[in-house]
Amino acid sequence: MAKKSMRYTATDGKMVLVLEVAEEGGFTVTAPFIPGLDTEAETLEEAFAMAKDCAAALKSARAQMARRRKRISRSDTR
Description:
Elements (H helix, E strand, L loop, with lengths): L6 E5 L4 E6 L5 E4 L7 E4 L2 H33 L2
Antiparallel strand pairs: 1-2, 2-3, 3-4
């Protein structure tokens, strides 16, 4: 029988995280309201720090992609 993984939900009042206990120790961290956020951490404090960094990187990457799409669509109409 497969071992059931332990999952926890935590919030700091601004962000909701789902922490799943990793086999090798620590946690795999995702955020149900931030698609694409996926990181790892050893502690709850580190999970929030890593998640905030990951969320900022995702926001920046998505903004950059939107600017590129806008430039491409402008060049197609010329």
